[in-house]
């Protein structure tokens, strides 16, 4: 084997090494997204910058302090963020760190939309109040932790039973994460907008509130009127028909870009937008 071959193998090994490091970092970010650990990472980044600046300008005392913070900080991280670390290890054990095929994910999204449509139609006809929030890019793990953990496969029957009046989990929101029912009886932040109609209740305010701080899609069924509303990006769309709801959820939640492009404009003219 020539020296050129050794150089090529070393070059290839370096590329594989970089790709593996990138993959691990990407998966770690995906796991902690939407949790308190994100803020922790920002703090660590600031400390590293301060450490670099103090070393550069010869600020020995400050540099020593930052070094101590980093040294003991990692031990504190392990203690404080035990739930997040445990969840990451559980996902690794179940193989969930590796994404499924795009086709399988699309099928799961379609099943989720169908389950939500069927459950919403059932509850609207019987005036069963409901609040269902669907996580998208912005993580909702902090809100999931306020409720009862379920991690259950989504179905219309499950959603309906969760909101049946006088059952233990009917108050609060159901949060759907990665096409599964992550938790029920979750607390969502209430919108403080002064422009919300006085006739809207707590569910609608919570739906608006979560849409103001995340990019989630949230469905509300009014127990007073049976009407169905959806919130997105701080906007409330009221009195939606079943067909319109299907179009919206399909456009926003099912992967193929062609579906999103075909139906995204319907947000602008279908349903009543609450000012």
UniProtKB/TrEMBL annotation:
EC number, as in UniProt: 2.7.7.85
Keywords, sorted A to Z: ATP-binding, Cell membrane, Membrane, Nucleotide-binding, Nucleotidyltransferase, Transferase, Transmembrane, Transmembrane helix
Gene3D superfamilies to which the protein is assigned, alphabetical: DNA integrity scanning protein, DisA, N-terminal domain
Gene Ontology annotations of biological process type: cAMP biosynthetic process
Catalytic activity: 2 ATP = 3',3'-c-di-AMP + 2 diphosphate
Residue spans crossing the bilayer: 12-32, 44-63
Database matches in HAMAP family: DacA (MF_01499)
Family per similarity comment: Belongs to the adenylate cyclase family. DacA/CdaA subfamily.
Functional description taken from the UniProt entry: Catalyzes the condensation of 2 ATP molecules into cyclic di-AMP (c-di-AMP), a second messenger used to regulate differing processes in different bacteria.
Record text on subunit structure and interactions: Probably a homodimer.
Name recorded for this polypeptide: Diadenylate cyclase
Source organism (scientific name): Mesobacillus boroniphilus
Gene of this entry: dacA
């Amino acid at each position: 084997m020539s020296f050129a071959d050794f150089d090529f193998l070393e070059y290839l090994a370096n590329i594989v090494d970089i790709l593996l490091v990138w993959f691990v970092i990407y998966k770690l970010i995906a796991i902690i997204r939407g949790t308190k650990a994100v803020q922790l990472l920002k703090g660590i980044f600031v400390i590293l910058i301060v450490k670099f600046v103090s070393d550069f300008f010869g600020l020995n005392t400050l540099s020593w302090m930052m070094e101590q913070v980093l040294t003991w900080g990692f031990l504190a991280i392990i203690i404080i963020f035990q739930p997040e670390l445990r969840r990451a290890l559980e996902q690794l054990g179940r193989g969930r760190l590796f994404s499924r095929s795009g086709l399988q994910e699309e099928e799961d999204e379609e099943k989720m939309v169908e389950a939500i449509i069927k459950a919403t139609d059932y509850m609207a006809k019987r005036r069963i109040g409901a609040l269902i929030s669907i996580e998208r890019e912005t993580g909702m793990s902090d809100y999931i932790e306020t409720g009862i953990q379920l991690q259950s496969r989504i179905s219309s029957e499950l959603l309906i039973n969760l909101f049946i009046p006088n059952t233990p989990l009917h108050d609060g929101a159901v949060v759907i994460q990665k096409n599964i029912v992550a938790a029920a009886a979750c607390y969502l932040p209430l919108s403080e907008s002064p422009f919300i109609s006085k006739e809207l209740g707590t569910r609608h305010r919570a739906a608006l509130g979560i849409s103001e701080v995340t990019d989630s899609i949230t469905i509300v069924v009014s127990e007073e009127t049976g009407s169905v509303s959806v919130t997105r990006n701080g906007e409330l769309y009221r009195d939606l028909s079943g067909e319109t709801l299907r179009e919206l959820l399909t456009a926003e939640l099912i992967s193929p870009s062609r579906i999103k492009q075909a139906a995204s404009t319907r947000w602008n003219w279908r349903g009543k937008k609450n000012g």
